[in-house]
Structure formats: structure tokens, C-alpha cells
Amino acid sequence: MTLANINYAWGNLIVEECIRLGVDYFCIAPGSRSTSLTVAIARHKKAKTFVHFDERALAFHAMGVVSATRKPVALICTSGTAVANFFPAIIEASKKKLPLIVITADRPPELRFTGSVQTIDQVGIFGKYVVWQMDMPCPDLAIKPEVVLTTIDQAVYQAVKRGGVVHLNCMFREPLVPTSTSSNNKQLSSPSAFVGDPVVEKYLKSVSSWIKSTKPYTEYINSVDNIHIDQAKNIAARINNIKNGLIVVGKIGNENERKAVIHLARRLGWPIFADIASGLRLGEISEEVIHYYDQLLLTKMGKALKVDGIIHLGGRITSKRYYEFAQTQLLNEYIMVLNHALRNDPTHQVTLRIESTVTNFCDSVGPLVKTRIKGKHYKDLVKANSAIDKHITKFLVQDSRLSEPLTARLVSQLIPSGTGLFLGNSMPIRDMDMYADFKGPVVLVNGNRGASGIDGLIASAAGYAQGLAKPVTLMIGDVSALHDLNSLAMLRDINYPLVIVILNNGGGAIFSFLPIAQHQDVFEKFFGTPHATTFANAAAMFELNYAQPQDAVSFAKIYKQAIQSPTATIIEVINSREENLKLHQQLQSSL
Ligand SMILES: Cc1ncc(C[n+]2csc(CCOP(=O)(O)OP(=O)(O)O)c2C)c(N)n1
Question: Which of 240, 309, 473, 539 could form a disulfide with 333 if both were Cys (CB 3.0 to 4.6 A apart)?
């Protein structure tokens, strides 16, 4: 009966986290599918409950409570038309901008659209009347308990911050009634709430420090304009408790933000892992920046690296290895600063989420953190960073081919300072992230990393050039270039030249790095998607300059001309996917 207890564990996680966030008034309508939630609420000593059989009236009651207390209230019902009965009050709450946390139970996916009893399509049912919603999966041992906690934290933050209704649609698979010995336990806010079933106990081990504490898993601070001095002191104290810290920087705004980050890192004596989109990678030669952190994480030293706290400033990180590294660390804090409210935490590790600009954060908190001398892990990283730089230079120069890593490195060296660099998905941004020469000029880096699509990249880069009012270099894969071929027509109408460096390896090179590449019966046709297309005729059709350099010297010559030309240019660099894979592997194993 472990499944019932996993359902119940999720019920307890949801309820306990709601209560820690101040959502302690639960309006419940009776029903079976919501059993895990109802029982968890009923047995929680801090939960205030109000039960009523008519969901329509219950929802209006909940809204009335919120309008009086201005505190969010939770509203719970079973699956089916019960959910629809919440709608009138949700509309009213949304018009009044009242924070309401609607949690509806639902059937598992195998029972949806099957004619199963009491099953309707509940996903997105409240449409534009909710400010945030999520369809939660069925409780499952394969899904970490942290996922449940960060979801509740995000839901309550969205409801309060944006003033409105959030909808969590929670699927539960039978059996629904818990059998764990905790069923008689009335002290559900204590760690003993989660004991009784050895499988569940093991499952909850990763959140044991959350269970022992009384705080929410991810605390949110909304300080867009100004961090209050008390909050700043509190944040600084948490940072001061970190012994071996690391700063990680994703996409950030401008030069001021970059300076503020370096300043903070110097004060803390911590290294910076800087993403290619951070603006701290190209032309930034501060010792704090570990440009080759991705490569470094491949080495023995990188694998042995241990930190107990991370400050993550700005957007997501391109390197997959970084996230793998973060998940192996025993972190006491993962502090994330980002200028919007949305969860940006794919590993579910963030303990403190500050909605603020990076400059505001660094200026308010920076002066309050204690100044430290650089630790040993820092000095080792700096040394390794410069060793990797030398190694990459040597490795790429000795190779006579115009490979994709070498092309990325050449672009990072040759691109004129202050112009734009737009990086396509999937290998171009990775090549630049791994092999760019940080000693090159400072440029403005961008890419479509929100959803990481391979569509619209030429059009986006053209728009970026127009918006920046500067020339832009676009590095793009061949499949992505084919995908957006008709956007070449746009290049006649923009005022600033675009240099499109197409890394043509005759298909999708990224897939050669994935385990599916071992399945030769399906790989080429369905993943590699080979083609023999080259782009000379496309350039001719759209009246663009075109060149196909064969080596580094001719690439440099052509690129320098292209970036000065008023007409857009396609520079096509031909490689094979097999050789590209081999080269990456050789380079990485040589480290
Ligand atoms: C619109 C869209 N369709 C499909 C994908 C899945 N996808 C990711 S990378 C890739 C292949 C890209 O090939 P290419 O542009 O040649 O770049 P390379 O992998 O060779 O660097 C595909 C199809 C996607 N990200 N976006």
C-alpha cells in the first residue's frame, strides 16, 4: 500500500508547505479523489478547516474570508463538476484580485478521456481568471518531494504577488486511503508526520532538513525596486553562513550589473561560473571569472569540487553539466536573484528566491556580507581555468581543420567590440560556451534560450541587429538555418549587417552526443536527419554575400570583410557530424 502512502505524503507536503507560507485556512468540500489532501488537512494541528457540501457556496465563502483577512485561503474539492462549481467565485475573486489557492483533485492520465466516472477536462478550466496554474503529476517515487514544495511556494507567491487566483490540479491514482502508521498522528507539523512507511521515509530523506525546520522550502522576497535594510541584513547573514560558496551568473542586464557581480565576488572571495550569455565571458578578464567551468567540471578536480552554498544571479545556465554538478552538492543555501517572479529552478534546490535586479541585490546586500580571503577551492579553480585556456588554444591550433569549436573561438576573437553576437541552438551556443576565447573583445551576447527552439533564429538575429542598431554575428546550425530560410528575405530590409556563420554538419549534430546515437537502426533517419544541402544558392536567391572558407586563415579574412559589408553575408563552415563528435570527445578527454 505504499502508493496510498506516497499520495498521503504529497498531501502532507502540500498542506504543511501551505501552512508554513501562512495559508492555514482550508475550505474543503467532501469527495474521494481528494482524500490525501483532506486527511492531511484534517490531521494537521495548525490547519483551520471549514467544510461545506456545495462547492459553489464554499468557494464564495473562501473568497469572503480572503476579502476580510487579505491572507490567501486554500479551496479544495474532488474531481468532476465539483471543480466547475468553483467558477463563479473564482471570477469574483479574480476581479477583486484576491489571492485564492484552488486545489482540485483529478483522475490519473489513464482515466482521462475514457468515460471514467466523475472525470471532466479540468486542465486550464478557469482560463484567464487565474494568474498561474499547474497540472500536477500523480504522486510518484520518481518525482522528488522538492518538486511538490517548490510548486506550492511558486503558487502562493504568484497568488500574493499578482493578486489573484492560482489553480493546482492534482492527479491522484488509487488507492487513495493512507495506511501508514502516521494516520493516528495529530502532530503533523512535526517530523513524525512523515514516518511510518519505510519506503516513504526513504523517499523523504532529501527534504529532511525542511521537515525539521519550520520555514518554507523556497522563501521568496519581492524587492524589485528596493531591498529593505532588515531583509538585506537577513540575506547577508545567510550568505555569511556559507563556508565554500560559488557565484553562478546567467543572462544579466548591462555593464552595471556585471561590475556589481565582480565586486560582490571579490568581497566574498568566491569564484564565478559565468554563462556565455552573462556578458562576463567575452572580454572579461577578472580573475574571479572561471570561464571554462563547464570543461573544468569534467576534470578530476571539478568532480571533487564541493560547495555548500550558491548565489545564482540572472537567468538559466547553458551548461547541462553545471546542473548535474549542482545536484550532487550538499547545499545549505541556493540563493537566486532574478528580475521576475517565475520559478526558474529545474533542479528544485532554490532556498531563497529574490525578485530583484542584480544591481539592486548586489548594492543592498554586498556591503553587508563579510569580506573574506580567497579559499583554497577558489585558487585551485583559477589555476585550472588558465591551464584549460592554454590547453584549448594549443589543441585547436594544432588541428588544421576549421572545426566547429575552432570556428566559435575564431568568432570570439575576431568579432568587433560592442557589436552583437546571437547564438543559435543547440551546438552553436554550446560551442561558444565551451570554447570562446575570453581574451577577445566585449560584445553583446544573446540567443533564444527561453524555449531553446531552433526556429526563427535568423529572424530573431535580424531583429536583434535592428534593435541594437549595430552589426550582429549569428552562429547557427544547418537544420536551424533551413528551418528559418525564408527569413533571409528580411535581411534586405534591415539597416545593420548580419553575418550568418552556418555550421553545416549535414544534420542535427547535437543528437550525436545523446545516448540515442548508439541505436544505429533509428539514429540517422529519425534524429540525425541528414541532408546534402549547402547554402550558396540560398545566398544567391536572396542576393547575399556568400563564402565557404576551408581553414582558419581564410575564415578570418572573410569574416573581417563580411562584418564591414553593408550587405548581409553567409559564411558556411562545412564539417561532418562524426568528426565533430570525435573532436569534442578528444578535446574533453585530453583535459
Ligand atoms: C522548433 C524546434 N524543433 C525541433 C527542436 C529539437 N531540436 C533541437 S536541436 C535540433 C537539431 C538542430 O540541428 P542544427 O540546427 O543543425 O544544429 P546542430 O545540432 O547541428 O548544432 C533539433 C531538431 C527544437 N529545439 N526546436
Answer: 309
* Cα 478 to ligand 1 centroid, rounded to whole Å: 9
From residue 359, how far is each of 132, 448, 527 by CA, in Å?
Answer: 28, 24, 43
For 409, the grid coordinates are 573561438
Closest protein CA for atom 25 of ligand 1: 453
φ/ψ of residue 104, rounded to 5: -110, 135
Residue nearest to atom 9 of ligand 1 (CA): 426
Query: Can you tell me the mean pLDDT for 366-376?
Result: 92
- Least Cα distance to 158 among 229, 202, 111, 94 occurs for 94
Once rounded to an integer, what is the mean pLDDT over residues 290-303?
Answer: 94
Which of 202, 209, 153 shows the shortest CA–CA distance to 2?
202
Ligand 1 pocket by C-beta < 6 Å: which residues? 425-428, 452-455, 477-480, 505, 508-510
Nearest to 478 by CA among 561, 414, 404: 404
Tell which atom from ligand 1 comes closest to the C-alpha of 478.
Answer: 16
DSSP single-letter state for residue 159: H
pLDDT at residue 188 in the model: 43
- pLDDT of residue 86 exceeding 50, the answer is yes
**Cα 529 to middle of ligand 1, angstroms:** 10
- Which of 475, 479, 514, 583 is the best mutation target for the ligand 1 pocket, counting ligand atoms within 8 Å of the beta carbon and taking the most? 479
User: Rounded mean pLDDT of 519-525?
Assistant: 95
pLDDT (0 to 100) of residue 193: 58
Interval between CA 454 and ligand 1 midpoint (Å) = 5
The amino acid present at 56, given as its one-letter code, is R
Atom 13 (ligand 1) nearest CA: 508
Residue 336: which of 105, 153, 511 has the closest Cα? 153
pLDDT-above-90 percentage for the chain:
89
Question: Could you tell me which residues come within 8 angstroms of residue 414 by beta carbon, excluding any fewer than 6 positions away?
Answer: 440, 556, 559, 560, 563
Helices (H) and strands (E) in the chain, counts: 23, 19
Which residue's CA is minimally distant from atom 11 of ligand 1? 508
Atom of ligand 1 nearest to the CA of 481: 15
Minimum CA distance residue for ligand 1 atom 24: 453
* Separation of CA 503 and ligand 1 centre (Å): 12
Index of the ligand 1 atom closest to the CA of residue 454: 26
CA distance 217 to 208: 11
- Cβ atoms of 475 and 405 closer than 8 Å: no
**C-beta atoms surrounding 355 within 10 Å:** 19
Query: For residue 316, what are the β-bridge partners?
Result: none
Which among 238, 188, 230 is positioned nearest to 14, based on CA atoms?
188
Residue 591: DSSP 8-state: -
Summarize pLDDT for 143-199 with one digit per residue, the tens: 999 999 999 999 999 999 999 999 999 999 999 998 855 444 444 444 445 667 899
Supply the Cα-derived Rg of the chain in whole angstroms. 27
Decide: 505 and 478 in contact? Cβ < 8 Å.
yes
CB 258 within 8 A of CB 281: no
Q: Where are the beta strands (DSSP E) in 11-124?
A: 25-28, 48-51, 73-77, 100-106
